[in-house]
Write the structure tokens for this entry.
Amino acid sequence: MKKILLIITVAMLMAACNGSREEVVETYPNGNPKVVYIVKGEDANKIKIGEKSFYKDGKLHSEFHFKGNDEQPDGEWKYFYPDGKLFAKATCQNGKFVKWEYNSNGEQNSFLDKKYDTIVTSAMSESLMPVELHCVKGDSTTVMRLYDVDFKTQGGGLMVNNDTTGKWTYYYPNGMLQLEAIFIEGKRNGAYNSYGDNGIPYFRGFYINGHRAGVWEFYDIKGNFSGKIDYDAH
């Protein structure tokens, strides 16, 4: 705890030498900083030129830089996994992200080890975290949706010529499978199964050409069979 506070204090002193300073604006219950603003100027002239967020254990989660009063993205932005390894780095010019670099860290993010023509951040959360990536290779795109807390995979799948195809999967924050579906040329075709965050199934079903088909089975929160619907009979 004392070591973390010492590091923050040293960082603030170094920033002060550059005409800026760091202000802790939010902390965790254990006293560690959660959000820190990098500012310069005083009172009405004070502007935020950067922001840092931290994990509960004091490790850096992300670091942003801004230009001007409108907090226009500027310079280098960095995002880190909980173990301190770099997840992503972005370069900003004139308020736009002109370059993204990504690093994998574990099985769920192994897609980052593959070779793609481009990897684009297609969506960011309100907290300025990349939460959807489009990894393009030829006419196919691997879509990955991420949790912005620790950058674990939330779900995704493959798109070919802008149509969803193959198996798409979604996960809970604890890594358990939430939903799996199969697509052919943009329509659901095949198994469609949902599970609780403890692995217990909610329902099991099947789609044909975008429509529910056959017998769907449903389960209660304890995993006990609770009923079925035969969609071929409707």
About this structure: The longest strand covers residues 163-171. The two ends are 63 Å apart (CA to CA). The chain is about 5% helix and 55% strand.
